[in-house]
Amino acid sequence: MSAMIELVDVVKRYGDVVACNRLNLAVEQGELVTLLGASGCGKTTALRCITGSLRPDEGRIIIDGRDVTDVPTHKRNIGVVFQNFALFPHLTVLDNVAYPLRVRGIRPVVRRERALEALRLVRLEGLGGRFPRELSGGQQQRVGLARAIVYEPNVVLFDEPLSNLDAKLRLEMREEIASLKDRLGFTSIYVTHDQEEALSLSDRIAVMKDGVIHQVGRPTEIYAEPRTSFVAEFLGNPNRLTGVCVDRIQDQVVVEADGQRIVATDASGTLGIGDRAVVYVRPESVRIQDGDASPDETTLRATVVRSAFLGDSTEYILALSDKVNWHLRLDHATRLAVGEEVNLVAPRPGGRAFALAGSPVDGSPGVALGER
Amino acid sequence: MTAVAVGAGHRMRSHLAPRVSRLLIYTFLLAFVLYVLSPFLAILVNSVAEGWFGGRVLPAGLTLRWFDWAFNVTNLPKVMGNSFIIAGLTIAISLAIGLPTAWALGRRRVRARNMLLTLILLPKTVPPITFALGLSREFYAFDLVDTHLGVALAHTTLALPFVVLIMSATFEGLDERVLDAGRVCGGNWLRNLVHLVLPMAMPGLMAAVLFTFVTSFNEFTLTLVTYGPETLTLTVQTYLSIGDGFLEVASAISVVLLVPSVLLLILIQRQIRPENILGGVKGL
Ligand SMILES: Nc1ncnc2c1ncn2[C@@H]1O[C@H](COP(=O)(O)OP(=O)(O)O)[C@@H](O)[C@H]1O
Ligand SMILES: [Mg+2]
Predict the structure, then answer these.
(1) pTM of the model
(2) Extents of the domains making up chain A
(3) Overall fold of domain A229-355
(4) Atom 16 (ligand 1) nearest CA
């Protein structure tokens, strides 16, 4: 396997803002890599550097072994699906889809044939005569999709293609994109701020913050073994416990907060005894104790503060101390009453610990997280 | 009992009041329309009337003689030709200068942008005759008097603000992301211009061209100080005919003069709507 898209030390500044700060990323042939990050972290800027709409201040962009850093956009042969669809308002759906073929000088007959085929692929046959404004948002994005793949580019980029669609449609389009990619085998960089979208769609995810890629890895890897506290916090809405490292056994540490102890993996491997630390615990990795805890588990005491019925499950807010709230989803087999004291059982290790620089131990952002 | 009385009073008001106010509105509207249209009516009748003077309500007879005179005595075809040539040149010059200016103002971050717009609007804000006076001096200096180009250049000073204002708004309304999509699809700048920018800006461009045409075609003050025997236009010829005492001939020329304006009015009614100019896509 060889890298199809390569970013090498890409830097892009807007005045004082560093939108992309030394991005390095290699996307293999046929792979779909997601740039995941909050709004404003530089995802679109990175994508625009790849399409050539922006010239990076530093670094190189390599596509299919060719350095395209100084190649103009129209010669890069990349398909792009835009967040706001960016269809040509004065052209019919068919002409929109045929446009990339038209500028490539392909004969009208062939052009029409292939545009119709692309429309069939996105299940829009029969709507070719309409204008973009006569379509729903979902249909418009399908046209955008057809226009991006009609000339069979090796590389298709997606810039938050689903964020302008409503929730149900988003799910449907997600499937559509996945199946299209399987059938056509293009290489993709997919930009989104939606972690569920990223986790479900990607071969690998690059988590970004403030123009920096924090971690690149398979979805399961990113989710289970976040390397920075930002990644841990960004994915999966974890519970937090902020305290002091009181013991260390190989790569695991014991963190204590308000008399409660939990065993966690030391993610950075740098925690010493007495250091302040934050532990991120996945809600699904703890359970309510019904019998005795086994030796390789630790127990935490908690009080039920609130409950919210969610249909298929109930979410409970549990107070570990007067400053720390955790949330936990339980099926209806377990019923807890507000005010009830419960024992929470966490495995060893029960989460991942990160060094907490500066902030006081009981500044406890965990409260805000739990009460959200 | 009281309830009935109140109800009746209510009904009276709700039935009578709208009828009265509607009547008032229609009366005022009719008066206004008559007031505005009466000069045109007078010109129309005058252009085909025989012996319509001295306070007569209706002319003594109808004739096409005045049009005949207009065509033959005042050489209307040539005058009309001049008007068209000058309007055409005005359009060409206004677009040549106005489109790049509008693009810069609408698409690029231009410093002192408001000051530039004010400068462009300047010829429109000073009294036309003052402006004409200054212009005529320069035209003599550059030997531009009595040339089509000269008159067109004078008209351009009036048409250019229209073009720049309409087109900078049009260009500003173009979605950069759509143009970006054009490049991503493989189109170079020329294809983007021809296939995307031009059609998307077409409603605004049509408006600019039509306004420019009518501005030039109807222009009088600046034409008066720049025309000559070879560049006589319809407006000036109308004026000269009035001066010669041929009111009917002047009316006949005026009727011809009116045609493009009326056509434009109809076009505006039909075509130039905000949604056409902006040409937006649903959901943006
Ligand atoms: N044209 C621009 N001029 C100035 N700053 C910009 C421009 N485009 C983006 N930025 C800034 O760069 C950063 C990254 O933006 P962007 O790449 O659009 O983020 P994302 O797509 O992840 O939401 C943001 O802080 C944004 O404000
Ligand atoms: Mg973005």
Answers:
(1) 0.80
(2) 5-224, 229-355
(3) OB fold (Dihydrolipoamide Acetyltransferase, E2P) (2.40.50)
(4) A42
